[in-house]
Amino acid sequence: xxxxxxxxxxxxxxxxxxxxxxxxxxxxxxxxxxxxxxxxxxxxxxxxxxxxxxxxxxxxxxxxxxxxxxxxxxxxxxxxxxxxxxxxxxxxxxxxxxxxxxxxxxxxxxxxxxxxxxxxxxxxxxxxxxxxxxxxxxxxxxxxxxxxxxxxxxxxxxxxxxxxxxxxxxxxxxxxxxxxxxxxxxxxxxxxxxxxxxxxxxxxxxxxxxxxxxxxxxxxxxxxxxxxxxxxxxxxxxxxxxxxxxxxxxxxxxxxxxxxxxxxxxxxxxxxxxxxxxxxxxxxxxxxxxxxxxxxxxxxxxxxxxxxxxxxxxxxxxxxxxxxxxxxxxxxxxxxxxxxxxxxxxxxxxxxxxxxxxxxxxxxxxxxxxxxxxxxxxxxxxxxxxxxxxxxxxxxxxxxxxxxxxxxxxxxxxxxxxxxxxxxxxxxxxxxxxxxxxxxxxxxxxxxxxxxxxxxxxxxxxxxxxxxxxxxxxxxxxxxxxxxxxxxxxxxxxxxxx
Length: 498
Fold this sequence. Notes:
Blueprint: E1 4-5, H1 6-15, E2 33-34, E3 36-38, E4 48-51, H2 59-67, E5 72-75, E6 85-87, H3 91-102, E7 111-116, H4 121-135, E8 140-143, E9 147-149, E10 156-157, H5 165-177, E11 182-186, H6 189-193, E12 204-207, H7 223-235, E13 240-243, H8 249-258, E14 263-267, E15 273-277, E16 283-286, E17 297-300, H9 307-321, H10 329-335, E18 343-346, E19 352-356, H11 361-374, E20 380-384, H12 394-405, E21 408-411, H13 421-430, E22 438-441, H14 445-455, E23 461-465, E24 473-475, E25 478-480, H15 485-497
Parallel strand pairs: 3-4, 4-5, 5-6, 7-11, 7-12, 8-11, 12-13, 13-14, 14-15, 19-23, 20-21, 20-23, 21-22
Antiparallel strand pairs: 1-2, 8-9, 9-10, 15-16, 16-17, 18-19, 24-25
């Protein structure tokens, strides 16, 4: 269904000043066509145009690819096959440019809402998706860190928050083929760092918050780099929704003003849409002085947590900006639940437990504050760890959040990959500065959950943070057996009641 020729590739790369290889070196067969794009040496089929992506790409992988019959590859580095290579200055931008053309520019055929922030992207994405799905008869795609649907009906687990460009545009094309009209998409900082989202203009961009995260030699070298990548969503959106209670809001607001990007704010009493917490922790009120989007009113959520009030407000504003019908907004919001977000359990002794994906300072801090407010006379018990091989600065930040908001912590594994979970726990523990925090260590995550639940007394709150509904545990490059935080929580409850 989709094809691209050598001549079309030449025109695209020349137009975008990406071409290094002289025209004569690869234009001997200008009409040669490709019906598959791939950067994975294990995924070769049909007439494949192959991309050598990544600093760790190895020549032997390319040899394997060429031995399958691949005739042309694109790379920033010459691997010594001049008759088959096209050299470019930027492989990642090239991937995006060619994928757009190959899939017939599906990004221009969808109404797109992009969401970024350090904490809450998935929650906001699910809320927006739920509202639009009700409004537009399921014709809404979702690309989130947890699930992907291109037809609004069938869902599969996601691999990356924002897919690689070849996958991203393929998924968009699938959505267009399925008759989908809207796309709700989480946009990570890496999506801009690695140009996965290159060339996409969102009809609405939602910026929730910002705090240091993903700072490491293999992700963002500094907070400034991380923040700059996040800001790219604003610069690539036709209109923006901003949380005026976010850190560095003044920078974000100034950026939008400088570039004449229409902006709607939510949050404090100074925002366009102030968010007023209700007496019930699942209720809030929008109270704009000028209700130009016609969304003022009382709302009830299926989820606990005041921080979700802001997430819901962002979702309501974003959906109103793409002209979703207002009649059923309250019903849609009240029925939305989010896998792995604030999944609630009540223990036999009256203690509360929540399973959540929280994994950085902002999310852990917000959950700790919520738990303290929910049960002021009890202790807050946390089960947590940190992933191996990425976001190395997060471990210190987690220690800070634990020091500020928790009474007891059980440090455990959380996708350690090639690192030692005990060594990761050492880093988190070293950053806990509050001597009153009681620290336990149990590297088996299933046993750690059992331990934390067993420690809880009637007025306590247990937060099981990090993996949410995700099953499997990434250990030494492989997916090891792990049945999920919710599973082990339910199992403990069943055994306790028995």
